[in-house]
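[09:14] KT: can someone run the structure on this one? pasting the chain below
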Amino acid sequence: MAQWSVVIPSEQWATERLFQQDVVVVQGGPAGVSPGDEVLLVADEQVVALARVEKTGGYVALAYVRRAFDEPIPAAGLTNGPLAEADFRRFAERLGRTQPKRSWLVSVAMPIEAVNPAEAVRQFWSHVNELGPRELPTYVWPTGDELAMQAFVLGVEANQDPEEEDEEDEG
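[09:31] RB: done, structure tokens below
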């Protein structure tokens, strides 16, 4: 089993951060990777995940083992290619261990004018489909702690308080 670094483009990285996938498919990839090899997934000069090669062909299918999407590790200079085991382990250890899961409430809410509940639901899903995660804020908080609610847009915390934005503009 060999160790590799595989770089994905910024656009693909942005999509990976938005949707929970078990596998990421990379077009091309380094020559010589084989199923079972270990991979550091690199995006924007940061190690963002540890993965295992599942399939190869004109592409490389990588199954996520550990993700560091929210706390990537700086990795300037890593390119597609083989890595010395010591270098691979140094980055892999910095990715940390998988954290225990906890229960979260996630919500998308928007005012919709409709003649009945069924029409409101249809309009809701149309808006969600149209706006998607790039424009529509999603609210998340730990179960039982509504005061900890945070808004996210594009997978990143986003201030949704217009009064705070007005204060920043004035200051």
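[09:33] KT: thanks! The first strand starts at residue 3 and ends at 7.
[09:34] RB: yep, looked fine to me
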